[in-house]
Amino acid sequence: MEEMRVVFAGFGGQGLLFAGKVVAYAGLLDDHEVSWLPSYGPEMRGGTANCSVTLSDEPIGSPLIMNPNVLIAMNNPSFIKFENEVTPGGKIFIDTSLVNKKPEREDCEVFELEATNMAEEAGLKGLANIVLVGKMLKETGFCSYETIEAAIRKTVPARKAALIDKNLEALKLGMQ
Amino acid sequence: MAQAEEKIVYERPHSLAKFVTNYCPGCTHGIVNRLVAEVIDELGIEGETIGVSPVGCSVMMYNFFNCDFLEAAHGRAPAVATGVKRVHPDKVVFAYQGDGDLASIGMAETVHAATRGEKLTIIFINNAIYGMTGGQMAPTSLPNQVTQTSPYGRDVSTAGYPVRVCELLSSLDGVAYLERVTVDSPKNIRKAKKAIKKAFQNQIDGIGYSLVEVVSTCPTNWGMTPTDAFEWMRENMLPYYPLGVYRDVVAEGFANAAEAAAARAADCPIAMADNPQLAALPSKQKVEDAMNKAQGGER
Amino acid sequence: MAEKVLMKGNEAIAESAIRAGCRFFFGYPITPQTELAAYMAKRMPKEGGTYLQAESEVAAINMVYGASAAGARVMTSSSSPGVSLKSEGVSYIAGADLPCLIINIERGGPGLGSIQPSQSDYWQATRALGHGDFQMVVYAPSTVQEMADLAYGAFDIADKYRTPVMILGDGMLGQMMEPVELPEPRTELPEKPWATTGHGNKREKNIANSLYLVAEELEKTNFERFERYEVIKANEQMSEEVDCEDADIIVVAFGASSRIARSAVRAAREEGIKAGLFRPITLWPFPTDALKATVGKAKAYLSVEMNMGQMVDDVRLVVEGAAPVDFYGRTGGVIPTPAEVLDKIRQINEGLGE
């Protein structure tokens, strides 16, 4: 596969690290080289949290992504911070329930969806992250549905197993 | 034919090694070392005992005893002893520390080992001066006491006040037993030995952290004869550091330090979450009375 | 083959240490090693082990001293400012010839510094973390898998040579997740007849000590210890080479910066520049022998580090002026980019053409 460098960015508490982990697990299950790196420290307390996930068939150099070819943005500050870092031809996914800044990149494919509103209306509050992963999977085809489902089953902690179905619903919502 | 039966009235305790100590003539370390060794012998625990020596005049205690020994960095004996005890909870671990080691550079280690309720025995030698380095001011040097680094006398307005260790530690829940003794007379030596033995027995019985403070002398650095030093100690140190029991959870009616701590925390739901036998415990008031008494010593 | 799982570097070290038979962890919270301690707090009680949050780094390392002398496999972990506090205890541990594992998940310094990844404790780790004549084995993993493997093996090395061992990681390696295959749990651990366990009236007393008032005695123990260091130097050097055989320019980098250097070297090769990567895995002993084998063939060296230039000293000591040794680094918690390193490689390459 072509190296996929995804930045998930937004507020702490939106499940960005979890979404990143789902994508990383999918890469592991498909036997790719995988790295996942969170931002950490005070910025995680409500500012711009983000995480970098790389899937590749070559050993991964820096796990810190400077030039993503996929960006998932879940708030304005994050979108402003990362929009211009995306490589030309990259894909940008915006949760327009929370981002009102208009995208300016014309050399990228931009996908806008009201992920947070969609999730809430479907009774899936808090799962906009996975709605966006669903959309990203549909547009990039980076793995099969079977793989991502298995990745979700791996990533949801055992004590929260009841949430697996909700996550799968959210995934399908994004894939529509 | 009738020969006088040989009767041994005094001999070297088995746990004390045949080694010439580095202690000065008239120093109380020799007495207290021996008391510790006698207690180890009497309890029959030499093979189960692991000692920790401090930095100070007793730094080379690992040579003076026949049990296993560790030499710790200055002030860290309670942390080192914690490490040993956590690995061997069934063994007897004691630390022997001076005032600079225990109450100055090692105060954090002292307080936290106590509040964790480490089942350790601490022997604390308080002679109000740094002996090994040649007579500097200690955390327990008295107001106006002249030392090499308080040549005009300890000025409390700049150097602050001495630390009363037993009083300080008596407020901590992990503590089972605190007693301040001295060794200036046969009677007091016997009392001191009794306290040291209790501090070891408490550990064997799993009752909690026990510390015995021995108000001591330093004839060399005080610049006095041993007898004058005792006289000075009685006159000046004992009023500041009154002898007595500062905490004894067993005497207060508890099985151990944990039970006393639980009684004191009886009104705190989260602290009591894992303590179903709350009703069986002595009342909180009883603990508080004991604590108040402890602050003033039991004389 | 065990299943691969996705784990943070910090967690992989912790799990691997437990599998190596470590049942005692003493530490104090600090970013960015937090997950390691948290993992231990969760796992140790389930393994019948001890997790103890000490009152300070100073106390933690002294608890390690006590537990190690008592015969246990024991470790502590921290990050740069906290490791400085441990230096007293590390010196005593080395002086008493006690084994233990110390983790440093480095952050930017000096002082309180930053919490971002850094390699600025290289000197501290390799020149001696503490006062006196001593060294310790220092490993520099560059992947989560290597963090797990080195943590597992570190206890054996520590016990074999009776020395403290350090794993020098950084915030990036500690925080990142990668697939990792964990080692099998150890069932047998080495005997430690020297440990202070209570003599049980069955043997002579044991003493853990670093005090020698007779200078000649201390000198003798230091001589003995340094003879052991020679054995370590002969047997334990570890390094990895990528495309070094025909390389004109050898980039030397360890840990996180070696990942960036690897990308840069790959890009340089794509441009036709003959670059290679030499990656020290042991920082002490420095992999002198393997690096020495490249001297005379390579035309230039470039040390890439996340500091102001520390390992470059060791590279120069090996190269001994046979070729120019250049340095590129970012500091304070800034991570260099492959593009920056590639630029530097190009620059050096142009110089070679003259």
Quickly describe the structure.
Chain B is α/β, with parallel strands linked by helices and 299 residues long. Helices cover 38% and strands 14% of the residues of chain B.
Secondary structure layout:
The complex is a heterotrimer of chains A (176), B (299) and C (354).
Chain A: E1 4-10, H1 16-29, E2 33-38, E3 49-56, E4 70-73, H2 76-82, E5 91-95, E6 109-113, H3 115-121, H4 128-140, H5 145-155, H6 164-175
Parallel strand pairs in A: 1-4, 4-5, 5-6
Antiparallel strand pairs in A: 1-3, 2-3
Chain B: H1 28-43, E1 49-53, H2 61-64, E2 68-71, H3 77-87, E3 92-98, H4 99-105, H5 107-115, E4 121-126, H6 156-159, H7 165-169, E5 175-182, H8 186-204, E6 209-215, H9 219-222, H10 226-240, E7 244-248, H11 257-264, H12 284-296
Parallel strand pairs in B: 1-2, 1-3, 3-4, 4-6, 5-6
Antiparallel strand pairs in B: 5-7
Helix pairs in contact in B: 1-8, 4-5
Chain C: E1 5-8, H1 9-19, E2 24-27, H2 34-43, E3 50-53, H3 57-69, E4 74-78, H4 80-95, E5 100-106, H5 122-127, E6 137-139, H6 144-161, E7 164-170, H7 171-175, E8 177-180, E9 207-208, H8 215-235, E10 239-242, E11 249-252, H9 255-270, E12 275-280, E13 282-284, H10 288-292, E14 300-305, H11 311-319, E15 325-329, H12 338-353
Parallel strand pairs in C: 2-3, 2-4, 4-5, 5-7, 6-7, 11-12, 11-14, 14-15
Antiparallel strand pairs in C: 1-8, 6-13, 10-12
Helix pairs in contact in C: 1-2, 1-6, 3-4, 9-12
